[in-house]
Amino acid sequence: LAFGLAACQEVDPDPSAARAPRVTAAPESRSTPDAPSTPDDGAVTILFFGDSLTAGYGLERPDRDAYPALVGQQLEAAGVPVRVVNAGVSGETSAGGLGRIDWALRQTTPDVFVLALGANDGLRGVDPASTQQNLRQILARVRESAPDARLVVAGMEALPNMGADYADRFRVVFPAVADAADAALIPFLLEDVAGIARLNQADGVHPTPEGQRILAETVGEVVVPLAREASAEAS
Question: Which residues 6+ apart lie within 8 Å of 118 measured at CB?
Fold first, then answer.
């Protein structure tokens, strides 16, 4: 768990170079555009908004091996046209996410929005109340921009060295945010990956391609059904 939650603390490359979201899908996808945009071809747009875990830090091919792309491949394999927008930024906090959400939404109108921020807040000991408020405001902005979007919140855990009280207050942030926004909840993004050496890179903290595949299964259990629903409604 400690390894998994350290996932972004030492990684903060040039933010200005990292802010442009990547659009990815299965290699065979006919719905992959050259740049982020609102689909006009019936494809479901999924916007993943997170940190280095979402960005696929350390992977040779994050556009194919990071969990957002893998979830897109699951949907493509099931015959659901999908456009995956990876708006993960290494080192991002909930406050940083709140600062860039409007820009992200000007680039893309999502049918499904996955909020995967908070790990860096826990690492820095940010007051969980502040994290909760930031995450709630992010989702409120999404709801204003894309009223029909399905919302998903990915939960995280705090490091044990932050103390039991902090860990308890941090843990309840994510279900509370999801409940307030009527969003689906992924209880723990790093389930079955955190702290398992063979599933993490040499730094011991960022998932390998195999680890990312497990993240994709965890996320896909929640996101794939929502994307199917969005696709069915659009058809």
Answer: 94, 131, 135, 155, 156, 170, 173, 174
